[in-house]
Amino acid sequence: MKKFLLGTVALIAFAAPAAAADLAARPYTKAPPMIAAVYDWSGFYIGANGGWGSSHNCWDQVPGGVFIGSDGCHDATGGVAGGQIGYRWQAGAWVFGLEAQGDWADLKGSNNSAIFPGLFTNQSKIDAFGLFTGQVGYAVNNVLLYAKGGAALTDNRFRTFFTPTGVLAGSASDTRWGGTIGAGIEVGFAPNWTAGIEYDHLFMQDKTYNLTTPTGALFSSIRDRQDVDLVTVRVNYKWGGPVVARY
Asked: Could you give the C-alpha distances from 169 to 67, 116, 166, in angstroms and in order?
């Protein structure tokens, strides 16, 4: 009996390697395709911006609506800072959007009167502006190139000073509407964060203002021609589908 058991164990020991050799090779399985993360620009966003602006202003003296001469031009320059809120939706590589932007501004400039040189100094100042625009852009993953256009408004102050003394002679203030076009580039540097730079040009309609003295008396009537150039750096936080996985 003992010899029979030993013989059986020996037989199994010799047969096992042969049986293993006869087993079929493990079948090859193709690796699953890699998943590419594609940035999605769709969704709401809110952000902040800051930069520089220049408002080009030319004054004509028009007492009683009658043109008597150009009083010169000047650039009102300075810093701007504010915020924006909007919504974008993406269709393939194309991105469409709507945005509202509002900024505080300190764009100020002046020139010596061309009609009364040495006697009066004319000054323009923009305290704030707003943009209400539509956008169309083209996205290459997390990089977006876009153009925009729509309506613009500026909050203005116009003043004339006696040049020898610096005393205010007349002033007027007004919020005026115009149009804007612009372009920018924006980069998604995190699933919900983007940063970019934008240029905007504001076409503000010509408008006539009555400058009054500090006592309320009429001092002069001017027609102001104005346009504005803006360069801003922007940072946005967005929500609504930051990343889409595509095979």
From this structure: 20, 13, 9
